[in-house]
Specification:
This protein is mainly β and 108 residues long. It has strands at residues 12-23, 26-35, 38-39, 43-47, 53-63, 66-67, 70-71, 76-84, 99-104.
Length: 108
């Protein structure tokens, strides 16, 4: 019997709108929630429609100047992501397409 690797569930998707700042393992990014709600502690493992792997954790959500625990679909927020792959994040636009990171929310 052949075992196939289990793919992580995808219940969290954020569209990258604007990169505000990056460091080696930290990025501050304006995002739009595509699938969610996306909660603090969500782990993102890849960029949709690419083979690029990332390992980022959502550590802060700033929604209209207020710290919140989650962001609902179609809302925009300033978030902080920490971990590996921050250098792969790029701002999106209509001409070149939007980059969407996919992952999973922490267990309840």
């Amino acid at each position: 019997m052949t075992m196939t690797p289990e793919h992580p569930r995808i219940d969290a998707e954020l569209q990258i709108d604007d990169i505000r700042g990056t460091e080696e393992a930290k990025a501050t990014v304006v995002v739009r929630c595509i699938r969610g709600p996306v909660r603090l502690g969500a782990r993102f493992h890849h960029i949709r429609d690419t083979m690029m792997r990332i390992d980022l954790e959502l550590t802060e959500i700033l929604f209209y100047g207020r710290l919140v625990d989650e962001i609902d679909p179609s809302h925009t927020a300033l978030v902080t992501l920490r971990g590996g792959g921050t250098s792969l994040l790029v701002s999106g636009d209509k001409a070149h397409g939007w980059k969407i990171i996919q992952g999973e929310n922490p267990s309840a």
